[in-house]
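FYI - complex with magnesium ion, inputs then prediction.
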Amino acid sequence: MARGAKIVERVAPLMDKPVRIRNIGIVAHIDHGKTTLSDSLLAGAGMISEELAGKQLFMDSDEEEQSRGITIDASNVSMVHEYEGQEYLINMIDTPGHVDFGGDVTRAMRAVDGAVVLVDAVEGPMPQTETVLRQALKEGVRPILFINKVDRLINELKVDETEMQIRLGKVIDKINKLIKGMNEEMYNQGWKLEAMNGSVAFGSALYKWAVSVPFMKTSNVSFKDVYEKCKNNDQKWLAKQSPLCAVILDMVVRHLPNPIDAQKRRINVIWHGDKESPEGKAMLTCDPSGPVALMVTDISFDPHAGEVATGRLFSGTLHRGLELFVMGTAKKGNRLQQVGVFMGPERVEVEKLLAGNIAAVTGLHDAIVGSTVTNLMDMTPFESIKHYSEPVMTVAVEAKNMKDLPKLVEVLRQVGKEDPTVKVTIHEETGEHLISGMGELHLEIITHRIKRDKGVEIVTSEPIVVYRETVTGVAGPVEGKSPNRHNRFYLVLSPLPDAIATLIRNGDISMNMPEVERRAVLMKAGLTKDEAKGLKDIQGTCVFLDMTKGVQYLNETMELVLEAFHEAIAGGPLADEPVQNMLVKLVDVKLHEDAIHRGPGQVIPAVRAAVKAGMLLGGDSLMEPYQKIQINVPADQMGNATSQIQGRRGQVFDIQSEGDSIAVIGKAPVAELFGFASELRSATEGRAMWSTEFAGFEVVPNNIVKDVVLAIRKRKGLKLEMPRPSDYIDGV
Ligand SMILES: Nc1nc2c(ncn2[C@@H]2O[C@H](COP(=O)(O)OP(=O)(O)OP(=O)(O)O)[C@@H](O)[C@H]2O)c(=O)[nH]1
Ligand SMILES: [Mg+2]
């Protein structure tokens, strides 16, 4: 029998007892030891052999993960742990630490109720530690802390026992400060981490031991023992006296909520439907006999079974053959083919799966990541899962062989479905398709997998930076005339006020919400009543308002106007790059009374030209993505670290020192960061640790904008000169 199936035999009887379930995610900065911990826990719980754990990395089963030594995909596994005489089912997701795969962390946080935040005792909390913690709190997921690699603190940094305790205390303080800053309410309600109550543990995932204050009482292992046994190379003793698995899983069972308790609180955060409806009540109580409410958090592809959707079942029961509906798609039933759970690389079928568990099912053809799936004909969908960063790099891919062309299009659609942090643009006419992602590594992995898993030979361009366009001043009214000159549109363009951009980014305003509610939010953000009433469309962070009154035939033409608006913001006038942060107001319109003279061929070019010309008149700007950078170096290397940022059109805004180590914090444009890793390494004699993170888009400086624009235009085969308003409309 396969290993996974054996595990399921032990796991299945617990799946229908929500009070005995804990759904947890392991989250941390890159390389802090998440996968080593996950493996060691599995070994400790008897799920994989002791020898394999930490060496083969069972949870990093993909060959790319093995050869690169990093986690790429979040992976799920379940295990059984005995605590105070009762068996508990732990459903665990090991998440990746590399920022390029941060989308996996964001999605995993929707599926779980608790998070083990890992911190490397030597490095301390790093930028991604903060990011993953924020993602957890945003989802209402409760954190506990494991300070890992304590062996390194003693054997590599050679700190003494007192210094060791001081350093561990500092890590706890820093994490508490972050939690307090992110959610003071929960911090005061018991989410503060404390060594004394056992919500913090210390240890070594690699050597499989850990200590916590409550556990010390039974094991009689003290900090003094920890220090001495590490120093004297006897960590085996620690692993025997105070095993990692027992300490961590005790902490999980004791401090992290079961699905019933968690859903009572979390449903209010992630679902805004009617709490009194049957599905609302069922989710709040995690009721297995209520309607099915499943949120899909991951889609993967199985060569035999096809698409596999993984997600959290908040209410109801799943079994083979059940007919479900995917909200937001045509109301066509999707019949479940297999119902199961993931056991690391394997997927194992189960008879039925009850509310409060994480399911892996096949048959949901219409589902994408983020879908709400139910057996009801209609249900308010869950809040969408928002990832904080946006694609910053693009590669162009082409099929090597003509015959693969249709297959490539199919595969690219699939890629977009599996990874919502990827943006795929398909150009069927030219055959040149674009994949945009979080960074170089992200794109490298995706293109490699297209070849390896989907069997399509492709040619890939070098990665290029993604740009945006925006308008920096007010323009208009700009007149757009239709080709037959019988229809005229007058537009005023301006930058979108920050308050509204923030509302859109945080998901606090959308075209889906009831109009009255939306109007109220917009007025609170500073729009006038008329403006708020005139809202016709939100696309990304571009907003369209109709400020006209009583224009005849406009109602029936509005759809075309909006279509033109979409076309215009899909590619701005400067470099045909997507437009963001723009407010477009339609202030006057003259329409031909005969419908035949105001069709798509007349309206669309007129409005599109007015938007594009308006952007140039209002001060069109090119924006480039920035990355926040933190470099940790020994004090004598500080100069080399700062010059690596400043030399790349970057800016250093903080330098923090801690002991003899310095953290240089700054930002630089992505365009200047190619080759950063190797240059930094040689500039600092390999002694720097660094991490980068998406930091939004900023305007390209004046002195280089022309060169950048012309380079993009050249690449895209556009006219090799700076565009002028008169390229789009007459009389300017
Ligand atoms: N000395 C020591 N090394 C450890 C410990 N835990 C993990 N490591 C090592 O740290 C490195 C990274 O471990 P992983 O478990 O792959 O880290 P990760 O957090 O899963 O990494 P990503 O998933 O890529 O973010 C490996 O070389 C481990 O052997 C520990 O407790 N002590
Ligand atoms: Mg890992």
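The first strand starts at residue 21 and ends at 28. The pocket of magnesium ion (ligand 2) is lined by residues 34-35, 60, 71 (CB under 6 Å).
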